[in-house]
Amino acid sequence: MPPRHLADLDPEARRAAVKELGLPEFRAKQLSTHYFGRLVRDVAEMTDLPAAAREKIGAELLPHLLTPVRELACDDGATRKALWRLHDNALVESVLMGYPDRVTACVSSQAGCGMACPFCATGQAGLTRNLSTAEIVDQVVYLAGVAASGAVAGSPPRLSRVVFMGMGEPLANYPRVIAAVRRLTSPAPDGLGLSQRHITVSTVGLVPAMRKLADEDLSVTLALSLHAPDDDLRDELVPVNQRWKVAEVLDAAWSYAARTGRRVSIEYAMIRDVNDQPWRADLLGRLLAGKLAHVNLIPLNPTPGSRWDASPKPVEREFVRRLRAAGISTTVRDTRGQEIDGACGQLAASTVDGAEAR
Ligand code: SAH
């Protein structure tokens, strides 16, 4: 694990930590105001701290966790991908997406991923390690700073949403992800002050963790990566289905919806001739009918070496039509960041060294 950072700590632990450094307690709030309130991540810029204290605080509470390797932009600057090197040389990526009415950060919760979904680039290399709470939060604070600088043309300057849809399975790094959500949603200066409803935690369907999440008293949006309505196919597309079947995972989703009153987002990557048949749309419609659910279809983003392709548009339209006819609210996600390998399922930072050497 990386060194301890302010963002790992709740406000009480921050006060204890500054006291341990021999500093007065009010420094904790001052640091939090800089970091969460003003998005200042570097202690050198906190010039209202006495110079001697600054050095100590930098080393003990604000170590550099994320070293930028490179940043890429596309979609006329509305999509930006940042590649980071962590203290142990693990690589992760984050994506910032600007829309006319909002700015969304897509963050990684693990370096790599152990879930091995065959259509996802991150899944191919396996899991390197869990990220710490601060490594997650710092991605968001950095991206919020980019948004605040006005770099995302045509979008508001305030980052308003965070989706845990970058690298990793957030519910496999449960305590750190939950702590990160608390930092993101605590009012400033304790945290970033984002709305819980504007945080989306996306999962392959780790049923016990989904049930635990329902007990956290957090009204975050839960996204479930379903991708197939039948166990035969889902066993292949989302291997964890061999452990928790479609019926169980949907049951956990409906419990979450009942507990929180929040509509669950059902994610479904449209893969040509694999999961896009009309009968699968109808089966999905029957599974979701009358439930607090929304279907988000994702045109498959091609990953290197994959034998799979996105569904043709007419096939996608028919799938949407059938779901809607069954009364299911359905949208097709716009594909952002495809040409910078920053789209869903394309984050595979571990391959970048080779790319850089080219
Ligand atoms: N592990 C979590 C979150 C990360 S992926 C999860 O699986 O939900 C975020 C979303 O992108 C998931 O729905 C995932 O299935 C989807 N995805 C992965 N690879 C993709 C690809 N190549 N094209 C489109 N969507 C993909």
TrEMBL record:
Kindly state what the record says about how the cofactor is bound: Binds 1 [4Fe-4S] cluster. The cluster is coordinated with 3 cysteines and an exchangeable S-adenosyl-L-methionine.
* Active-site feature positions: 93, 344
Catalytic activity field: adenosine(37) in tRNA + 2 reduced [2Fe-2S]-[ferredoxin] + 2 S-adenosyl-L-methionine = 2-methyladenosine(37) in tRNA + 5'-deoxyadenosine + L-methionine + 2 oxidized [2Fe-2S]-[ferredoxin] + S-adenosyl-L-homocysteine; adenosine(2503) in 23S rRNA + 2 reduced [2Fe-2S]-[ferredoxin] + 2 S-adenosyl-L-methionine = 2-methyladenosine(2503) in 23S rRNA + 5'-deoxyadenosine + L-methionine + 2 oxidized [2Fe-2S]-[ferredoxin] + S-adenosyl-L-homocysteine
State the source organism's domain of life: Bacteria
Q: What is its EC number?
A: 2.1.1.192
Q: Outline the extent of the Radical SAM core domain.
A: 99-339
Q: Which residues bind S-adenosyl-L-methionine?
A: 168-169, 202, 225-227, 301
Q: What else is known?
A: Reaction proceeds by a ping-pong mechanism involving intermediate methylation of a conserved cysteine residue.
The record's annotation in CDD domains points to: Radical_SAM
A GO BP entry is:
methylation
Q: What is this protein called?
A: Probable dual-specificity RNA methyltransferase RlmN
The cofactor required is: [4Fe-4S] cluster
User: Signal peptide: which range, if any?
Assistant: none
Chain's role:
Specifically methylates position 2 of adenine 2503 in 23S rRNA and position 2 of adenine 37 in tRNAs.
Which compartment or compartments is the protein found in? Cytoplasm
Q: Spell out the molecular function terms from Gene Ontology.
A: methyltransferase activity
Q: Where does [4Fe-4S] cluster bind?
A: 113, 117, 120
The coding gene here is rlmN
Family membership, please give it.
Belongs to the radical SAM superfamily. RlmN family.
Alphabetized Gene3D superfamilies for the sequence: 1.10.150.530, Aldolase class I (3.20.20.70)
Q: Which Pfam families match?
A: Radical_SAM, RlmN_N
HAMAP family on file: RNA_methyltr_RlmN (MF_01849)
